[in-house]
Design a protein that fits this description.
The chain is an alpha/beta fold and 222 residues long. The protein is built from 7 helices and 6 strands, in the order βαβββαααβαβαα. The protein has a 4-stranded parallel beta sheet, with no helix packed on it. Strand 1, helix 1 and strand 2 form a beta-alpha-beta unit. The longest helix is centred in the middle third of the chain and has 15 residues. The two termini are 16 Å apart. The N terminus is likely disordered.
């Protein structure tokens, strides 16, 4: 079968913020896109997925938060600095070990993920970018990712604007890009939907991409 490449004008592009180990809905949003424009010059919004994610532990859903230094109102995301006065890396990694240490694919993916956490990124967007790149590769999503583009450069492109569309403020079952498709999870008898991509990767490994496709509301367009 001959593959017909899309022209530049036909490419699907999305403008979206960087999030910390994003949810399945975030990756379902990226599935259909040819180009991903990572907006770093948006005004930072606190208490969002920009610096937090959800994972499943033995007792509960745990929310992991990357602490940031104090900033003034209107500060852009690219200027948000990580606060290392708090020992958040130890907490996050300890949570990964206890939550996923016995998961089928933990031993395969953990070393490379740990190498990212062993670094000390000054800015939150740099940490989020490295984690996103790692996760995109593991789920087999080969996308053209553009990073640190200025607002004017992005605005000149025909990209759909999904800034803050995927957030932790809305109620469940009100997803724009995601529908719940159960998969194996280490803990509990009841499936917990739309956790961090790390939950899917550690539990399902190479099958993760297929789960995302099944979970995408745009599945028929892929």
């Amino acid at each position: 079968m001959r593959v017909i490449e899309k022209s530049t004008s036909e490419k699907e592009s999305v403008r979206i913020e960087l999030q910390y180990l994003p949810s399945l809905e975030y990756f379902c949003c990226l599935l259909k896109q040819d180009e991903i424009w990572l907006e770093t010059e948006e005004v930072y919004q606190k208490q969002t997925y920009r610096n937090r994610c959800k994972v499943l532990t033995a007792n509960k859903i745990d929310i992991l938060t990357v602490p940031v230094k104090k900033y003034s109102h209107g500060t852009l995301s690219k200027d948000i600095e990580i606060d290392y006065d708090q020992n958040w890396k130890r907490r996050h990694w300890g949570c990964f070990q206890s939550a996923y240490g016995k998961s089928p694919y933990y031993e395969y993916y953990a070393p490379e993920l740990r190498a990212i956490y062993d670094k000390e990124y000054q800015f939150l967007v740099d940490l989020n970018y490295e984690l996103l790149t790692f996760c995109l590769r593991l789920v087999g999503l080969k996308k053209e990712v553009r990073y640190k583009m200025s607002g004017s450069e992005i605005a000149s492109k025909p990209a759909k604007d999904f800034i803050s569309t995927i957030n932790n403020k809305k109620s469940t079952n009100n997803y724009k890009f995601y529908r719940s498709v159960p998969y194996y999870q280490t803990f509990g008898n009841d499936f917990v939907e739309n956790l961090s991509i790390i939950d899917l990767l550690f539990n399902m490994g190479p099958e993760s991409r297929g789960i995302l496709i099944s979970s995408s509301k745009a599945e028929e367009l892929l």
